Amino acid sequence: MLKIALDVDGVLADVIHSWLSYNNKMRSTIMKSDISEWDFWKNHNIDRFDFYKELSLCWKSWKDIPPTENDISSATETLSKLGTVDIVTAREESTHNDVKNWLEFYNIAFENYVGVSEGLEKARLDYDIFIDDSPLNAKSILEVGKSVILYHQPWNLKFDDPRVERIYKLKNAIPAIDRIINTLK
Length: 185
Known about the structure:
The structure is a single chain. The protein is an alpha/beta fold. The protein folds into 2 domains: 3-14 and 66-184, HAD superfamily/HAD-like (Rossmann fold); 15-64, no CATH class. It has helices spanning 15-26, 48-59, 72-80, 96-105, 135-143, 173-184; strands spanning 3-6, 84-90, 113-116, 129-132, 147-151, 165-167. It has a 6-stranded parallel sheet, sandwiched between helices. Helix 1 packs across helix 2 (48-59). The model has no long low-confidence stretch (mean pLDDT 94).
């Protein structure tokens, strides 16, 4: 049975939308189109720990976090027909219940919820395919010989590796998974 690790932030939930709203009230205005790197906060003189703390704070208002695309529930339902889909997310422990509420609210299909403290820990987990938006996670997953489907976001545009399947909509993960399976045969 195929085991798929599905990320939350930036793949299912557009939490950066909520963070930008928060940031733009507190600091200078940043638009999503201004984000071109994973660690974009450095270019805006924002401390890394402050950024992640603020992201966690955004999850406290989980009902305000939109999905990354319309009909995300249907895409996860179709994906779950290909194998076991687990939510695999890196975050502060205090936000797990908020994320689970969000997943339930948007009727996201998955088997298990797996939380790790750092994104790079994902590469050590036993999954066949990872669907993620982090170029750092993608690199570490590829380094251990596993397959990655990269969900297109402005912060991962510079990541270019022929072993990665890039998708613009979650429903496009299905043909990407078929291509990955065919190359493994």
